[in-house]
Amino acid sequence: MRIGIVGGGSVGQTLGAGFAKAGHEVVLGIREVTPETLAQPRNQARTLAEWQDETGARVVTMEEAAWRGEAVVNATNGAGSLEALRIAGTRNLAGKVLIDVANPLDFSKGMPPFLMAEYSGPTSLGEQVQAAFPEARVVKCFNTVTASVMTNPGLVPGEHDLFLCGDDEAAKEAVRELARGFGWSRFVDLGDIKGARAQEMFVVIWVRLWMVSGDPIFGYRIVR
Amino acid sequence: MRIGIVGGGSVGQTLGAGFAKAGHEVVLGIREVTPETLAQPRNQARTLAEWQDETGARVVTMEEAAWRGEAVVNATNGAGSLEALRIAGTRNLAGKVLIDVANPLDFSKGMPPFLMAEYSGPTSLGEQVQAAFPEARVVKCFNTVTASVMTNPGLVPGEHDLFLCGDDEAAKEAVRELARGFGWSRFVDLGDIKGARAQEMFVVIWVRLWMVSGDPIFGYRIVR
């Protein structure tokens, strides 16, 4: 499948590399593609020039990534996701599976971060992405584990669950199939896109568990 | 141990019955103890008159429950917890282990509920209880599972975790010991009382999981 990643940080790079390794055709979109942006140091990640060399995939504009992708991944910072997706283009997202991996975390008061007020309470970023791009088929997924576990769940020994939600059943199945390509086998479907409220709260728990243990490599399992 | 429960709803009744069955001396406090309040129908729970007959424990005022308890349980509705604990009495709580089981859920927009704005973001109910009663030794615990699982974790087959947090290590160990009496054996310590942010978010996830599955009997396991 052709996959367009929107966002060039560690999550976008890791998912892009993972999809490329799994045999998909990947393009990764950033705002401006110049020699400078490709060489720019990035927090906890390679430069995008290095990423291109390692993956064989191309860095393009956000607009081109959304246009080329049959599935599109929102791997931007949650605070800037709606703006980035507008740049990617409403028409380019229409009809597409849009995997929303973003978390609307507010680090303004230091650690631990908390959920941004405008994306919590009786709403969530996932819901607002779906509302802003009604023709996209939004699936919230992958946002509850650290980037390396997203594409390699086997890093965590033992069975653990991948959460997803969205309004479109076929889109959710498409995302499960992509996740199976990474080795995921246990899915917890949190229903329609309102489930994003729960999934985005998981990341606050995730940050807390990381803080108290010093180790971000873990997963969750719902036990019944 | 003498345990004072503050709150006569299903959570207070279930925990009170569980502690009594485990051999503790239990009193359960409500605002006004009258023949009418004891006979009053309660949402998803017995009348308190029935509860007294079944458990052999006594219903008293909130103030007496806090005064008598060596450990005190906040089993009130999260929206009213601070007020209820003020009625229970600051002096009666001083030096006591205060187990905060309450969840600040807002049902005003129907299902699913969400966390009340004043107790989410960069704060939580657990933190605000600790701040309002600085001499109490607050431990947030039991708030992430349905009442019947709190006192009977074996209802969920398979190993699952009980979360707790608080500023006082000895108080946390006292709560672990009380939980062991119910059969809990796996604990995830979320650190100081700021961990209540994570634990209170779990309940939103819990409600969602219940909604999509139709079954509230489940637990969580952190997989490493």
TrEMBL record, chains A, B:
Protein origin, superkingdom: Bacteria
Keywords of this entry: Oxidoreductase
Matching InterPro entries: NAD(P)-bd_dom_sf (IPR036291), P5C_Rdtase_cat_N (IPR028939), STEAP_metalloreductase (IPR051267)
Domain Pyrroline-5-carboxylate reductase catalytic N-terminal: 2-104
Keyword Magnesium attributed: no
Transmembrane segments: none
GO molecular function, one term: oxidoreductase activity
Pfam families in UniProt: F420_oxidored
Cited PANTHER family: DUDULIN-RELATED
Name this protein carries in UniProt: NADP oxidoreductase, coenzyme F420-dependent
